[in-house]
Amino acid sequence: MTRSTCVVIALTVFAAHAAQSQARGAVEVRVDGILASRVTTAHLGVGATRVVSRNLELQLVIGGGTAFREGSSENAAAGRADLLARFAPLPADRQRWSAYVAGGLSALVERGTRGRAVLALLVGMEGGRARETRSFVELGVGGGVRLGAGVRF
User: Fold this and answer.
1) pTM of the model as a whole
2) What HEC string does the chain produce?
3) Which residues contact 60 (CB under 8 A, 6 or more apart)?
4) Is residue 105 predicted with pLDDT exceeding 70?
5) Separation in Å, CA 16 to CA 9, 23, 62, 145
6) Cβ contact 132:28 at 8 Å
7) What is the arithmetic mean of pLDDT over 16-36?
8) Taking 50 as the threshold, does the pLDDT of residue 24 lie above it?
9) What is the mean pLDDT of residues 6-27?
């Protein structure tokens, strides 16, 4: 095999893998609330998902918003970053809703306080595809009780 043949084969494999990678991921827009004993936060966020296998996805979420602290009349800027693994026994590629569980690490920050890392555990429901979008809702724990909803593209 000549050197140019090897280069052509390598470029073909690389292009096929890149095309497949784009089809095996998703972007999401979401709104979340975290209710803890002394502080409640509301975040708007964006996320990116990478499919690892038929039932497993890796997810990175970054969100920002406001923290409402008990006993304080002023709100503080707050944010978070989540790195999660999501397992869906029946993936939502169909027309019906399907359940999933997710777990991972979350970094929570708030102006005027020290940031902290927490373990996040979630259960959720994701809708079937409707014009290339899927809605979802989540409930879980991680720095408090978490509620989230959004749309994946």
Assistant:
1) 0.80
2) CCHHHHHHHHHHHHHHHHHHHHHCEEEEEEEEEEECCCEEEEEEEEEEEEECCCCEEEEEEEEEEEEEECCCCCCEEEEEEEEEEEECCCCCCCCCCEEEEEEEEEEEEECCCCCEEEEEEEEEEECCCECCEEEEEEEEECCCEEEEEEEEC
3) 47, 48, 81, 82, 83, 84
4) yes
5) 11, 11, 29, 42
6) no
7) 75
8) yes
9) 54
Q: Rounded to whole angstroms, how far apart are CA atoms 135 and 126?
A: 6
Quote the pLDDT of residue 14: 44
pLDDT of residue 143: 95
Q: pLDDT-derived band of residue 11, with 50, 70 and 90 as boundaries?
A: very low
What's the maximum distance between 2 C-alpha atoms anywhere in the chain?
Answer: 74
